[in-house]
Write a structure and sequence with these properties.
1218 residues; alpha+beta; 9-stranded mixed beta sheet; 8-stranded mixed beta sheet; 42 helices; disordered N terminus; disordered C terminus
């Protein structure tokens, strides 16, 4: 880490200037001092603080801040700190400029071919062959001599270039606006992030970017630390530093052992206060970011200069060992913690989970169509050329004369251009565009529905969701908790008791137990408006208890002032394992008192006494406990109340216990009270759940609450209906049912449980993860399940990550949960999830509408160009016209059809599931039906149109002849039919009324009318460049009439029942099993970029070549030997890295210094299916391509799991040579 920090100074000229002026701005520490301090860890950091500053309060004095009061909220002082120590902001990577995007759009192969052809055509058109020989060249240029039309030869080439420019600009503009939206989204996510700091003794929530060095920040469970700091005071603080160090164990922090807190790390338990010492680019995360950013630029420069020239100082250590190795290292992240920053960066640009289902299907479809188009265009060109050559040189018997060459070449170029245009029309480049537009549009609109989408593809996955596992508190309920029942002094009160009825001793103990044993950040503040409810700040369960104190006409603030937070002797904070929280205070007589509160059935087991009505102790035996559970707790729970037990214990001054032995300390308690807390169901939830069930989505409730409470709430919400066959299980029982004798989870057992499971109570985060994983991996039922999960706590991270779509709570959610999620619910409300489902389904339908339209045009345009070229040696639709049609189809149609707003009707059908093809039978029927209509019309016009309209035939026109009315009518009719078919395409499920809701989509209307207007201009005034000649009103009316015929024909098609057409195939299935393998790159591993993939592929081939022989010998041996025990658990080769690190691949002298895996890759929580590598070009010995899923038992880091399968086991050898 030290090297990294130092090396990064070269990227910041600022710190060096400050080094010359010590103690700049009157503060007692320079930036460089603080930076070097933050590089130390543990004992040495503590030693450095003591040597340099005395202690942490000495550091605070130097930074002119107070450990208790914080900074003065003085704008000038804050600004000065920003000037000297930097602001808490890491500058993002520069977005691509518009010109860069244009350049990228120009890289499209078909466009390049067109450009070249157009330029050749341009060049040739300026070459006029000498006049007298023109007869000798045949009739090729006969028509061109009229009234100087030869000069117009350049127009076609120029027009093609112009339309290419048009396409490029539109594409670039779309990319640019998408990028901008993403940045907007990103900044919105960042603005939402706030952090608690103390300024002027007040606890404030400030935006993360406003933190300055010297701020006193409050850290609590679930925070993502926004800056580096030194701990002043902490309670049971544990930090997950894996994002920086790759170590998955939680690190204990305390002011007297290891006080260093680093930005980008997660608080997993406890709370505390820290003084901020480094922000922005000077914090540990910032230093790595800078290195990555600068490193990236260095790499690019170095690649340009050639490998050896980069100055050694810039190179990370490994790079100087050997040219080959240096090259192989480039794509890998710095193991020091690139992972976290990568994730941060990716958040802004790349979706989380491999390709989404939809993108997979689309890519596959586009490739298939593209191939077909390529074949068609090649055949077109070949036929045209052959026909021309045979006719000119064989039939007419002409000789190729030198001076005629340019004329002939011009013909060939024209043929070539026709071929390329067929290709351009055939390739549906609008597909990716339509997806992007549709998703971006949906994401923007979903913001209004309180869904902040962090990963674009989550929005579309949500449309396929078949199951939702929801939290109870805050999502299904209002999360405004109040104590409604209590059991105090042997009496069960159904409402708040009058203070006078309670013994003062009980009341006093209760008030102290609640006020002290809850986070001091939890408060109840007066309402903002008159008549509103008091505001609850902090943990809602604690707010309910504090509210109870206020209802008893007491106040918690004086108690807290009497015993401030830093006087608390020891705090055991709440976590999902303990399900309780305890605080120890020192009594005036030198003894200690412990207050404890937690889940009633757990805490009552630790109680041995209870206070009676006079406030005296009475024995509390197991029999009394069972009695209490039956008479008090179960009735409360059945009313849907959450029961909390409040207890205490006294220790005398002489018998101080071992505070680290928690079980000993929190035992032998005396119960003060049991309270029942009500968290009312949100009024809109039952209706939302009914909608989900109607839409074929199963809602399950996963909660940490008591099973009776959970069941009561589930019934109120409508998750469980009376008379249904369902399961409500507790975490323990759930685990008993799904695990075998050895305690391992078995998928078959899980498959028996989850289909009926509706409520999982008293569940731990692991249970939630197990359930989600089990449902996703399950293969029972006709389709694979797509699972959405909601979560708010730090411990929900693994489940949120594992789910197909993770929803985090915007209000109650911790940073860790938000980090792991795909969508943030800004209002924490379940109904927003239903909105997300609606939008997701809408995206899917929009894409299908667009596909239906686009494919009809593709089929027709390609067939017309192809047959026209074969029969009349000239495509009826000219290159420029084709490009215009392509523009309507691709860009405009994707805008028009992809922005249809969703309707409630979308929630009336079942989800599509993962395997449903994109193009259903109904759509196929529509596509072929409309294509047949259009082809019939166009071919009729092409061959007998001149008779019908009584005009000259446009067939067999010589080169450069003026545009004919005949071909203009064909072009115009074609476009009219497309326009009306666009209206048909609005419905894909065979509905009759295609105009339904058309006015709710202004974009659609304006695009259709706009296209129509431009078409009029092109036909009437397009002239030579568009090969159009103006049409009369009558001809226009005929074109329109044929176009409207599309709508009538649409009704005819809708009448034919799809079920009768067995011959129609569906198309656009999801990627097959094998392809899924390539895409299921494990989540922890970021998608490998292309270069890296090629590199690795190369390495594997190389290793394979070397090993083929030795492996085959081994296989023979293995089969002879009887070592079959290794075949039970295929634990090896789980990812491409391990594949290469298995013993028979380590050619030691060569590869030992290639880091094949980054230690940070395997997240301990993810017992994830690590997918095999992308299929390599040679398919002959590829165990991986045959689609074998291999699992790793997640907690071992991948590198160590490699060695778990013995090199001698047959599995090893068989797998490598399959």
């Amino acid at each position: 880490m030290g090297d990294m920090a130092n090396s990064s100074i070269e990227f910041h000229p600022k710190p060096q200037q400050q080094r010359e002026a010590p103690h700049a701005g009157g503060f007692g520490c320079t930036l460089a001092e603080l930076r070097s301090l933050m590089e130390l860890r543990g004992a040495e950091a503590l030693q450095k603080v003591q040597e340099a500053y005395g202690d942490v309060s000495g550091l605070c004095r130097r930074l002119k801040t107070s450990p208790t009061e914080g900074l003065a909220n003085n704008a000038n002082d804050l600004e000065k700190r920003r000037q000297i120590y930097g602001q808490n902001f890491i500058p993002p990577k520069q977005p691509k400029t518009f010109l860069q995007l244009v350049w990228e759009a120009l890289q499209d192969v078909t466009l390049i071919i067109l450009e070249v052809a157009a330029i050749v055509s341009l060049g040739l058109s300026f070459y006029a062959p000498p006049g007298e020989e023109s007869e000798a060249c045949g009739n090729v240029s006969a028509g061109a001599e009229d009234e100087g039309d030869a000069e117009a030869g350049w127009i076609e080439g120029a027009a093609i270039l112009l339309s290419v420019t048009c396409v490029v600009l539109v594409t670039a503009f779309n990319d640019w606006s998408k990028e901008r939206q993403f940045r907007g989204l990103q900044s919105r996510i960042e603005q939402e992030q706030r952090f608690s700091v103390i300024r002027d003794g007040q606890l404030l929530q400030v935006p993360v970017a406003a933190l300055v060095v010297g701020d006193i920040a409050q850290v609590k469970y679930g925070d993502l630390l926004p800056a580096d700091g030194v701990l002043i005071q902490g309670n049971d603080l544990k930090i997950d530093e894996s994002s920086l160090t790759g170590e998955s164990d939680h690190v204990r922090k305390s002011a007297d052992k290891d006080p260093m807190l680093l930005s980008g790390t997660h608080v997993m338990e406890g709370s505390g206060r820290m003084v901020v010492t480094a922000v922005g680019v000077n914090s540990q995360t910032g230093i790595i970011f800078t290195l990555l950013g600068a490193g990236g630029e260095e790499e690019e420069k170095k690649d340009k200069k050639g490998k050896e020239t980069g100055s050694p100082r810039h190179r990370p250590k490994g790079k100087t060992q050997d040219g080959a190795v240096a090259m192989e290292m480039q794509p890998l992240k710095s193991a020091e913690g690139g992972e976290m920053e990568e994730r941060e960066k990716k958040k802004a640009s790349v979706p989380k989970k491999e390709k989404s289902v939809l993108q997979g299907k689309l890519t596959k479809l586009a490739v298939q169509i593209g191939k077909a188009g390529l074949v068609m265009s090649a055949i077109t060109v070949i036929i045209l050329v052959l026909y021309f050559v045979i006719e000119t040189f064989v039939v007419d018997g002409r000789v190729w004369l030198a001076e005629c060459t340019p004329v002939y070449v011009q013909y060939f170029v024209k043929f070539f251009i026709i071929g390329v245009t067929v290709l351009v029309v055939a390739v549906p480049e609008g597909l990716p565009l339509a997806v992007t537009i549709s998703l971006a549009y949906s994401v923007k609109k979903m913001m209004r529905d309180n869904n902040l989408v962090r990963h674009l593809d989550a929005c579309e996955t949500m449309g396929n969701a078949t199951a939702i596992c929801s939290d109870k508190t805050g999502t299904l309920t209002t999360n405004r908790m109040t104590v409604v029942q209590s059991y105090l002094g042997d009496t069960h009160y159904k409402e708040i008791p009058a203070p006078s009825t309670l013994t003062p001793k009980i009341l006093d103990l209760l008030v102290h137990a609640i006020s002290i044993n809850s986070a001091y950040t939890t408060k109840i503040l007066p309402p903002e408006k008159e008549g509103a409810l008091p505001r609850q700040v902090g943990n809602k369960t604690e707010c309910a208890l504090l509210g109870f104190v206020l209802d008893l006409k007491r106040d918690f603030q004086p108690v807290r002032e009497q015993i401030p937070e830093d006087k608390l002797y020891k705090v055991y904070t709440f976590n999902s394992v303990r399900k309780s929280m305890s605080t120890v205070i020192r009594m005036p007589d030198g003894g200690f008192r412990l207050f404890s509160k937690g889940a009633s059935e757990i805490l009552l087991k630790k109680c041995t006494n209870i206070l009676n009505s006079n406030g005296e102790l009475r024995g509390f035996r197991p029999r009394d406990r069972d009695d209490m559970v039956k008479k008090i707790i179960e009735p409360m729970a059945c009313d849907g109340l959450r029961t909390i037990c409040i207890a205490y214990r006294d220790f005398s001054a002489t018998q101080e216990p071992d505070w680290d032995n928690e079980n000993e300390v929190v035992g032998d308690l005396t119960c003060i009270a049991v309270v029942g807390i009500e968290d009312p169901v949100r009024p809109e939830v039952p209706e939302a759940i009914r909608k989900c069930q109607r839409a074929g989505i199963t809602v399950r409730m996963v909660t940490g609450d008591n099973i009776n409470t959970a069941r009561a709430i589930a019934a109120k919400c409508g998750i469980i209906q009376p008379g249904e066959d369902f399961l409500c299980l507790e975490g323990k029982e759930f685990n008993r049912r799904i695990r075998n004798e050895k305690g391992e989870i078995e998928q078959e057992r899980l498959d028996k449980v989850w289909p009926k499971l509706r409520v999982l109570a008293r569940s731990s985060p692991t249970d939630k993860h197990t359930l989600v994983k089990g449902i996703i991996d399950s293969s029972t039922g006709e389709q694979r399940q797509v699972v959405a999960v909601t979560g708010d706590g730090t411990n929900d991270g693994p489940a949120l990550k594992k789910a197909d779509v993770g929803f985090a709570m915007g209000i109650a959610g911790t940073d860790v949960a938000k980090e792991a999620s795909d969508i943030i619910l800004t209002d924490d409300n379940f109904t927003s999830i239903v909105k997300a489902v609606m939008w997701g389904r809408n995206v899917y339908d929009s894409i299908s509408k667009f596909l239906q339209f686009q494919l009809t045009v593709n089929v027709v345009a390609v067939i017309v160009a192809f047959t026209g070229a074969c029969i009349t040696q000239d495509s009826p639709l000219k290159a420029v016209q084709m490009l215009w049609v392509n523009l309507i189809m691709d860009t405009f149609a994707s805008l028009a059809l992809a922005t249809e707003p969703p309707t409630e009707a979308l929630l009336l059908r079942k989800p599509y599931g993962r395997d449903k093809p994109l193009i259903s039978r109904t759509m196929m029927k529509n596509i072929l039906g409309h294509a047949a209509y259009q082809l019939t019309i166009i071919f009729t016009l092409l061959f007998v149109g001149e008779l019908f309209f009584d005009i000259d035939s446009g067939r067999n026109a010589p080169l450069h002849s003026p545009p004919s009315e005949h071909y203009t009518i064909i072009f115009n009719t074609f476009v009219m039919m497309q326009l009306f078919n666009e209206i048909n395409a609005r419905k894909i499920h065979g509905e009759r009324n295609v105009f339904h809701g058309i006015f709710s989509n202004p974009i659609f209307c304006s695009i259709v009318l706009g296209t129509f207007a431009i078409q009029i201009v092109i036909v009437q005034f397009g002239g030579k460049p568009f090969s159009c000649s103006p049409l009369s009103t009558e001809q226009w009316l005929w074109c329109l009439f044929v176009g409207v015929g599309e709508l009538v024909w649409g009704q005819v098609i809708a009448t034919i029942p799809t079920s009768q057409l067995k011959c129609l195939k569906e198309a656009g299935h999801g990627p097959g099993k094998d392809e899924m393998m390539d895409e299921e790159l494990a989540e922890g591993e970021e998608e490998i970029d292309h270069a890296e993939r090629e590199l690795r592929r190369g390495q594997i081939l190389w290793f394979r070549g070397l090993n083929r022989i030795q492996t085959q010998i081994r296989v023979v041996k293995a089969f002879r030997s009887s070592l079959y025990e290794g075949l039970e658990k295929p634990e090896s080769k789980t990812s491409i890295h391990n594949f290469m690190a298995t013993p028979e691949f380590l050619i030691n002298d060569y590869t030992h210094n290639i880091p094949l895996i980054d230690d940070t890759d395997v997240d301990e929580n993810e017992e994830r299916l690590r997918a095999p590598p992308p299929p390599s070009p040679n398919q002959n010995n590829n165990a991986i391509d045959s689609g074998i899923y291999l699992t790793t038992h997640g907690t071992k880091s991948a590198t160590s799991s490699v060695f778990s399968s013995r090199p001698g086991s047959p599995l090893h050898s068989v797998e490598t040579s399959l």
